[in-house]
Amino acid sequence: KIDQSFVREQHRDPKARAIVEAILAMSEHIGLTVTAEGVETAAQLTMLRDQGCPLIQGYLIGMPNPAHKALALLRENQDRERTTADLLL
User: Fold this and answer.
1) SS3 of 31, please?
2) Which residues on neighbouring strands pair with residue 36, listed in sequence order?
3) pLDDT tens-place string over residues 11-56
């Protein structure tokens, strides 16, 4: 994971941007998938996408949920995928 402090500061601090870029380059080189945490703004998302960050998490995407709500969301998504797959067949 890329710590939220680097995500938050990378548009202002060249050192934070360099750390994010180094983490992404290193992870790609050794075949690991990276998640940037604490993404709260569209500008942060755009910068991370431009740098090739594959996954993000943070308030921009959604607020944290208790386990029972997260499970319900996963079940809804699974049901939606099944319905879509049935329509494609």
Assistant:
1) coil
2) 2, 56
3) 999 999 999 999 999 999 999 999 999 999 999 999 999 999 999 9
